[in-house]
């Protein structure tokens, strides 16, 4: 349907303007889900580029003019200049609408007067009454149409302003200078695009009310004065008092919101740690302190939410009660001044007040508020638009000069921010060379490249660049799109050249492994690629561009040595061998190939020349070289000791172990994970929601009795609300009878006109008003209380079930998905849902009330109501499905706009070096247009629906008005007034109610998702009846008897029928290839999933005791050390079971005491998120300290030494030998030197025991896996390992074995059987 029924709005007055062209869209939406292709093309005058350029030119003009007049440029002025004409025209709509709102009550009053003076014979009066009835109906119809036309067009103007601003912001972002980039952050720019610009959407809606509001108020005041005289001032006074109270509520509310937000962030951060460290928490059996922590934060948060909800409740109730109070005060004053009331007066007054109330209490204040917000946003955008831009320099040849491309630098001085001076003396190079600046420090070489690129402004000196530049940045940058589009980067595809580049950059193999080859989509920030792959794609992009000079900023650092060599030989010295290239590198082994080497140190050039020249001159660069030659993999400790600014190979080598293997793994593991996640999420957001869920939700908040009470209160409040108006009508009716009959009695010869007893009528009136207020406020507050409690209890249930679910759950579900429930869904339950729910219920009751009143006056009205209700239900179903899709499309088309912006900002230098700004700007405009399409649809569909609903209301009003006239013999003036004035209020309310019902339904999906997580399967109980003896396990004998283990009932079996025994005080190493089941052994021991078979510890069957009893008795040092946010003490001892002295001793033993003492508050120091202010080694030591504190007989080490420097490693080994001499220690090893001195070694292969014996014995068997593993470590290492194994076996004492067999006579047979 692209470009299909794409009509423009022709004449806004014709009925076709009610968007009949939308019907086909709804038909599609009803049958299936809407996709992006179903949307209509954006109108040319809403196109991003056109709007943006228009505003941009005006802005540039303003900037120039301002510079001439020496004043700051005004963005607001430009906006007004650009958009005032079409916007002003829309003011007429508002005026018409508000005028009609004021005239309608007058018609109503005349109609009621006919009933008051009812005379069956007077035909003229009847015709006049028909005229007035028609007036009432017509005005409702016109209101229905103009209101929505107005809203649609102002929102569209808002959209235009937003789109134009976004275009300008993006354009500006692409040409920011480095100095300006320092003043702003990516986050800030994204914030401008996401939050500040949205103010334009809101402000345009209300702006016109700034002048219409006061006018309308004045007109109403005039009419009221005519109707009831000066008493109207009392009512108006109440209105004026209500305005500031509501704004005050708003202020208070936002104050609470900000406090709540801080607590919520806090809770989500804690949750994040709990979910990501759940394995550790379970193994340590620390669930209780964590749940206490979360519950504490949640309690504070809920109390704030409760207060803000009560505020909301008061605000809503006051909104409903406001009109009641106003009318009450007006009439009390009126009657006490000695006037008599009549039905027409009553209802004209009521209707006029309700007409002006919305404008004065809602629209006018929000116009003021939004205007002030927008001014702040405009100011922020303006400061951004006035930041410095980069000076475009033009590199390239003039046509006639056919020169060699060259870069010439003389006495160059550059500043980043007028602080760091960068000096580069004499002149430089030309001809094809590989220039390798060798850095002892990170700063200058990148700065050198940036100055050549023109990113770094130069202050003095000469910098001449001849030729086209291309650049490969140090942090590899990829933008969302296919890999091919990342490499081509806007150039067209030449297959041979493309293949050549792929091969040179070692990407050929990777492409074969990815599912769609080079057409694989890269996610945001290149999520699907490994670091090494990104670096190579980055390099390939630079190579594919046919430029004259190549600037390569350390492209070899992210890849391992082998691939690095390939890239250097095939690519840098292969494809590019005839081009000048400047290569910044840290890997000195490549220097021999360079034609010229530049050594930079702290911004000065220390030396330059060829490799041999430099070696002769003996610059300190050779000392750099020496160090590298000793071993290209410099150990980590050494790097840390050198100045922190320097980067050497070692860090890089850690980054990528063989990246080819890594990339294969990444390719297979990560790619499928992406779509899976979305599928599961999406399946939820369709379909309707059953009544059962609502019941569950409400029952979570209160018990049945309270709920019944709430329901009764709701009805009482509504009844009081209606009765109060009905009493006025009744009073007027009684008064009328008196006036007509005018009975006069003679008492003691004095004529007394009979009057109604004021005290009785006014008293009952006051009583009803009071009841309305009390019930109204009570129901609001009670409802909020119930709903917030429901949110609280659902959160607690969900959290507890998450803590108790088996670890397997966290392996299947990505952390993001689990956290999403805790952040987004619980957020909905806390804030948005209660408010919408209460609002919906109040409006729903109002509507029922209106219908009930009308039916009590004219019972016949129920007959035409039936078809109306059917039509309405059909419309609602029809609309909801489409609108949900449109909303979904709107949010999905919004994200590319942001991700495009943030990825452009990350790759700013690359984009500029490749001169691709224009293309990126166009892409941005395309994304914007896509979002505009869906936003436009969103506006139109909601208006389409609203117009139809309001049309139905107009029909209802018509039926009521003419119905009263047809049944004129049986009705009283008061009840006609009541029915009609109520029917008229249906107009805006009905469609708002339907919208809210849709909202409630959408938000209930959050409840559904939370409820789904409260019902997860849980693992075995934490404590059972069978408690082990307190000092168990005293020995530490572990026996596996025919144990099989798999992570889930349908998963593969990872341990097969395993029999083994670990003797007390024995140190056992466990080795095996990856996937042999080493970690599964630990999982089985800790019962992370239930194993089959039996595991005994000191003769106690582990599967019979509670999980906490089991897990607390074994200590584990996990693979990835996890620290939690909180104090150091909490991290060591969350249950506070130990004294300070114990804690300090434990720290002393793992040599962390000095580190902790240096912290500002020693033990009480709060760690940063997940302990990131400690190095990995230190975190490992903290885990060791935990184990030392626990003093358990069994210690399990999941080889943590994979990423720890040798010193820590040695320390850990030493501590284990000393502190845990009396314990059974199982070590899962990845590096053999850590376990070669164990008593025995268990070799696993594919879940079965391959061999289990002393290391020395194992090494005798030359076919065994263990022997092969030792050989693989390399010749030197293998010799050392053999040596230490011999040593261990000779020292191992036979007597210990004998004593064992005496102790466990019954088990010896079992062992020999093995």
From TrEMBL:
GO biological process, one term: lipid transport
Ion transport among keywords: yes
SUPFAM superfamilies per record: ABC transporter transmembrane region, P-loop containing nucleoside triphosphate hydrolases
GO cellular component annotations of the record: apical plasma membrane; basolateral plasma membrane; chloride channel complex; early endosome membrane; endoplasmic reticulum membrane; recycling endosome membrane
Membrane-related topology note: Multi-pass membrane protein
EC id: 5.6.1.6, 7.6.2.2, 7.6.2.3
Superkingdom: Eukaryota
Main localisation: membrane
ABC transporter domain segment(s): 407-627, 1038-1271
Residue ranges of the TM segments: 87-109, 129-152, 205-226, 232-253, 314-337, 343-365, 704-723, 764-788, 860-879, 945-968, 974-994
GO molecular function: ABC-type glutathione S-conjugate transporter activity; ABC-type xenobiotic transporter activity; ATP binding; ATP hydrolysis activity; intracellularly ATP-gated chloride channel activity
Subunit structure: Interacts (via PDZ-binding motif) with SNX27 (via PDZ domain); this interaction accelerates MRP4 internalization.
Protein name: Cystic fibrosis transmembrane conductance regulator
Organism (species): Oncorhynchus kisutch (Coho salmon)
Lineage: Eukaryota, Metazoa, Chordata, Craniata, Vertebrata
